[in-house]
Amino acid sequence: MSTVPPGLDPARIEARIRAYEGFGIHRTGWPGDDRTTDWLLAELRAAGVAGESERFAFPRVEVQRARLTWRDGSVDGEPMYDGGFTRIGGVTGDLGEDNDDEPFGKVLIATSALRNDRRWSAPDARALYSGLQQQGVLGMVVPTGDPEGEIVLRNAEHIRQPFGLPVLQVAAKEGRRLTSALLLGGEATLEIDGDRLNSRATNVVATLPGTDEAAAPLVVMTPKSGWFTCAAERGGGLTIWLALAEGLAALPARRRTVHFVASSGHELHHAGLEEFIKKRATLPKVAHAWLHLGASIGAKDGTPRIGAADEALHTLTTGALASAGVEGYEAMAVGEPGGGEARNIAQYKGRYVTFLGGHRYFHSPQDTFEKACDPASVARWGAAMWAVLTGLLD
Hints:
Elements: H1 10-22, H2 31-46, E1 51-70, E2 73-76, E3 78-79, E4 91-97, E5 106-109, H3 126-134, E6 139-144, E7 167-171, H4 175-184, E8 187-208, E9 218-223, H5 231-249, E10 258-263, H6 271-278, H7 283-286, E11 289-293, E12 303-308, H8 311-323, E13 330-331, H9 342-347, E14 352-358, H10 369-372, H11 375-393
Parallel strand pairs: 4-5, 5-6, 6-7, 9-10, 9-11, 11-14, 12-13
Antiparallel strand pairs: 1-2, 1-8, 3-7, 4-8, 8-10, 12-14
């Protein structure tokens, strides 16, 4: 089983990432996400793997307008999907900074975010925003940026239990205009005209049966959704996911059954994976291990991390990475799942191996193949993941 699957050839990886990028924005339930489902099913089918789509309900955010307007200017942005909405026409109050001693009745600009204060975009920022709302703040404007100052969005960790404060995310390159508006003083209007609607999205699932029904199964999971085109954020994981399915399908036999899931809802608190688990309530604990192909695998200028639930899985994983020539990653402490979907498995006390990280254009509209992808690096990581998967089969 030492020969890696043909899907891990860098040229094949590039073609697949470019195809995925070409579907457009991959937000949960958007057309690009639905096209990804169809594409993954077709790719599996071509490899002789019978996949299917599973629909699930989720709260779809529809935004008509997301804008801050002041006396001589305005800026558009994206709301935090787990934040609040304003009434039509918005809320109006004096502009202030996030360190304002008297924030009541004001619209605040998080100028500290321009100085790399990460509290505003942290997964657990709900408590921060709820506290500001209790102080009477009308709304927040949070500048965020990639290396060129384009907007970087925060995942909606509380999409099913949103906090009430309206929060507008804007590009960091607008920081100078926002600072000028603060210096001029006066009122501003924050309008986030939106709603949450019940909608449907799809996961892609497939099962490759093993020869030993008593052997605990394996699960290979990767997210397929995200804020923008997500070429590096999701592309590496998806191409490796397909290659692993193709590689296993080509084996004459395998002892363990292997389940595959490419889940939507990643940016919405991993909604798709949770729905997958709901339909298979015992799988987190009975599975021999879950292999999580997370964010930014093989990305240019990436900050890769790996994690494992126990020492045996950690040893297997680091050995596979060394054999594949992968270097320069952070090994998290044993039992630390990180922020990706492996944390869901950890909450169910399941075993996991996780590969994840970030890169320069993470959660940015500039996460494109040309700016952020390195197929040769993805291939090396994929070879290591193939070694982990085949090492767990027997």
